[in-house]
Amino acid sequence: MDYLPVFLRIEGRRAVVVGGGQVAARKVDALAKCGARVTVVAPRLSPQLAQRAGAAQLEHLAAEFSAAQLDGAALAVAATDDAAVNGAVSRAAQARQIPVNVVDEPSLSSFIFPAIVDRSPLVVAVSSAGGAPVLARRVRAQIEALLPARLGALARFMRERRAQVRRVLGAPARRAFWERIAAGATGSRVLAGDEAGAAQAFARELLGSQAGASRATAGNICGEVYLIGAGPGDPDLLTLRALQLLQQADVILYDRLVPDALLDRARRDAQRIFVGKGPGEHAQQAYINELLVELARAGKRVARLKGGDPFVFGRGGEELEVLASHAIPCLVVPGVTAALGAAACAGIPLTHRGLSHSVTLASGHAALDGSLDWRSLARSAQTVVFYMGVAQLPRIVARLRAAGAAADVPAALIAEATLPGQRVLRAELEHIAELAAREQIASPALLIVGAVAALSGVGSPPRARSRAQPQRCAIPIVTQESGCGSRRMVSPSMVSR
441 and 410 in one domain? Predict the structure, then answer.
């Protein structure tokens, strides 16, 4: 290593920054966050530094640099655009054995400022020894994406309880205890912002450890379930929170809408259990509910991974009720629901000025009963999205038409949304079922009905046609798309009425 990674306490100590521009302002910000008494040496200050000086947040020496200005300093920073001044600062500081940083000049510096991931009191520093700062910033950005925003709160929570744990647990037991706290229900509650729930989980875990419980027994107290929305299929659309919980789950229960590429983002040694339901397999949900309770009571951290969003036709509400009735801790992580993901990748805005002022999400299964207000769904100037509608597509079309929907209302059917095999079929409402049958579209697929279905991210909105004109759908009706990427035409044929 070119540099020894250290963290320097400078709270209340004098730090001298030579320079009054934007670069100097960034260094002042970093030093001020650590509680340093900052002195800025510069004939003139940038507006940002001048504001700090006016608020007595720094001392300003309106003068050219001189070596004596470093007397009594804990560290020095040279941030001017004058190489001679920067060199003078470096020599004066090193002569006084004061740590010095010259911005963008590693050869003149005895320390450097790393790229920082700040989850105080937990701080991650990334350095390229000054040789590749852009690369260091990229690495920092990747780490930022992995670490929960409230990780600092968890660090503070654990720090505040260290003395209590030291009093009641011996050294051999403490490490295992803290690992359970960080990775278990207590840590999850803190990261979710539930400090009261975290305190209760901590107390239960500590009580179990005091009683000499084994790890499995302690886990029985602190098992929990994560209801995670996996999004529409593309692994890159998984939320950061979902990814973080998948990395710590012991068991993953997943359905048939979760692709293997998404499961690959989970912890490698986690147990994977397929619990997908086929059409009409209503008893499967009762089995899933029982399995969630059983695994959580065994002390497992269980990820229930659902396609889309768990509370949008995902039966997540039912599972949440079951878990609550058994007093099992549960976290809900929303996902990108299929309607949003599919529409975005097909270039279809679900609302559009002048075309659609509202969106309704409906279950295609409802075409078999009278549970939907079909007259309301058939109205114009809105968008209706049908989930699980492939098998019932002819019935959905028939019910909409019977309720007053026009035959030429644009419709789009999106299969395997956001995945490499995504297909988008577009036609007028009266032809969409025939087209789907001819193209052998299978579930999972989403039906979008409304004027916006004619849009595809290019061109102008469709104009209203006169009833006297030939009614012919000139919309490209079948496209093959790769996820949210480029689109190529498979069949530009037109459907005549």
Answer: yes
